[in-house]
Write a structure and sequence with these properties.
It is an enzyme of class 6 (ligase). The protein has 484 residues and is α+β, with helices and mostly antiparallel strands. The protein is built from 15 helices and 16 strands. The protein folds into three domains: 295 residues, no CATH class; 113 residues, no CATH class; 58 residues, Arc Repressor Mutant, subunit A, CATH 1.10.10.410. Bound molecules: adenosine-5'-diphosphate and magnesium ion (MG).
């Protein structure tokens, strides 16, 4: 995919690398036993460690480490059996320790990659540089009192993963595809809920521009962007700003910027800090983190099937086309629903019903797949009724509508409404005779060569049988009688 900005001095290419902060799903914090539950009363989930009382000692949470390793495995990345925690020193009112415990030189996860899919089914690999664990900070509340600010430390010490990409992204759409894919993988793994609007996943967006074939130029980092749409917008706007600067003979300064979606601009937050500004050093309260290959292997063996593998399997096992398979695996709940419907049945028919009638019913009723008005089992039973000839495909749509409205089983609806397909050739022949008698003129036209009228007769006979006749038998009967 190419995204080119045409300037007055020629064409510019954009270069983007993303740093994603993803909150780890765990009951307790990275170095304390305090709860991580969302939405608690301010400061009700704060241990002495999180409040940084003197003399408190951090103790690593094994489950958080497991989650980081699972994520690394899901990103096809190298797992480092030895890693280390460092102190990143800075002062801010939401950080009582005066430093954040993070991993700097020795992260737990090294190089990996994510495959993204672009319009038209083209795929690309985006490199992952590293994944490390770190603590989240607290939250300042500025809107509770006219003259004072408060601090809520519930989030202080919650475990985050920072997932850093290589500067491999070349278009806003690629950044969007990367974030969607990353979120999908995290959700499948159950290591982060990926809810950007609740702040459990947020992105720092590094942007630079260059002429094709040139080395990279200076980048700017746009901090804490909290939706995929905003990330894409911020890239577009920031790249245009940089092109303008270069083309007017200026220099882009390396700095940290803020995206203001309301005004459609990015603006300076602060000049870019360097690693040495943070006075990183190994946290003396924590031993190096050493994990065993055997433990990693165990975690790997227990990983769920991930979206790429599931998609390939759906294509192969159920004959689902590439595009549809992507739609089905986008959310695990949809994939599970589909598989319950498809198992032991016609996979292509299953995918048409799930992505067609079912999705539109969900849309119409404002439901999600989790509280679908029609269960996967019920939809499967309905497909069985089509397969064994009890109902035809057209009647099936009416049955399905009825299932959406009443929640009754397909058998009950077919029984109650007398929708059973008519396969009795005596009944079908009688209907054909009646229609031919009623439209003697059309029969004459047909017999004098107007073949196209055949469809008209089929329609009439179906109507006569209230849509219940077996279409193949109707065809046979009509052919026999009209051509007689
Ligand atoms: P820091 O730790 O100072 O933020 P890193 O070297 O770790 O710097 O890079 C952070 C992010 O910036 C990475 O996602 C990387 O891909 C991206 N990046 C590095 N150089 C460039 C560049 N010239 N243009 C765009 N993004 C870049
Ligand atoms: Mg950074």
């Amino acid at each position: 995919m190419s995204y080119i900005i045409e300037g007055k001095t020629g064409s510019w290419e954009i270069v983007v690398g993303l740093e994603v902060h993803a909150q780890i799903i765990s009951h307790s914090k990275l170095f304390s036993g305090a709860s991580t539950k969302f939405g608690g009363e301010p400061n009700s989930q704060v241990s002495l460690v999180d409040a940084a009382f003197p003399g408190m000692l951090p103790v690593i949470n094994r489950e958080c480490v497991a989650q980081a390793v699972r994520t690394g495995l899901g990103l096809n990345a190298r797992i480092n059996l030895q890693s280390r925690f460092d102190r990143k020193n800075y002062f801010y009112a939401d950080l009582p320790q005066g430093y954040q415990i993070s991993q700097f030189e020795h992260p737990i996860v090294g190089e990996g990659s994510i495959e993204i899919e672009l319009a038209g089914g083209e795929t690309r690999q985006i490199g992952i540089t590293r994944l490390h664990m770190e603590q989240d900070a607290g939250k300042l509340l500025h809107d509770q009192d006219p003259t004072r600010s408060f601090v809520d430390l519930n989030r202080s010490g919650v475990a985050l993963m920072e997932i850093v990409s290589e500067p491999d992204i070349r278009a806003p759409e690629e950044a969007g595809a990367y974030l969607r894919k990353l979120r999908q993988i995290l959700r499948y793994l159950g290591t982060c809920d990926g809810n950007m609007d609740e702040g459990s996943m947020r992105a720092d967006v590094n942007v630079s521009v260059r002429k094709a074939g040139e080395p990279f130029r200076t980048r700017c980092e746009i901090k804490n962007v909290n939706s995929i749409r905003f990330v894409m917008q911020a890239i577009e706007i920031e790249a245009a700003r940089q092109v303008e600067i270069w083309e007017n003979g200026g220099e882009v300064d390396q700095e940290t910027r803020l995206f203001d979606p309301g005004r459609g601009e990015t603006r300076t937050m602060r000049s870019k800090e360097d690693a040495h500004d943070y006075r990183y050093f190994p946290d003396p309260d924590l031993l190096p983190l050493v994990i065993e290959q055997e433990w990693v292997d165990g975690l790997k063996a227990a990983l769920p099937e991930l979206p790429d593998a599931k998609r390939a399997r759906f294509q192969q096992q159920y004959g689902v086309p590439f595009y549809d398979a992507g739609v089905l695996v986008a959310e695990q709940s949809v994939a599970d629903f589909f598989e319950t419907v498809a198992k032991g049945r016609d996979g292509k028919l299953a995918v048409t019903w799930v992505t067609g009638e079912l999705f539109s019913a969900l849309n119409r009723t404002g439901r999600t797949i989790e509280n679908s008005p029609v269960s996967a089992d019920a939809l499967g039973k309905m497909l069985d009724l089509i397969a064994d000839g009890t109902i035809n495909g057209k009647i099936a749509k009416d049955v399905f509508e009825d299932m959406v409205e009443t929640g009754e089983s397909p058998d009950a609806i077919v029984e109650k409404k007398g929708l059973k397909q008519v396969t009795d050739t005596g009944v079908i022949d009688a209907a054909v005779d009646a229609i031919m008698a009623k439209h003697a003129d059309k029969v004459a036209e047909y017999r004098s060569g107007k073949d196209k009228l055949f469809g008209f007769f089929v329609g009439q006979v179906m109507k006569e049988t209230k849509g219940k006749a077996n279409p193949a038998l109707v065809n046979d009967a009509l052919k026999a009688k009209l051509d007689a």
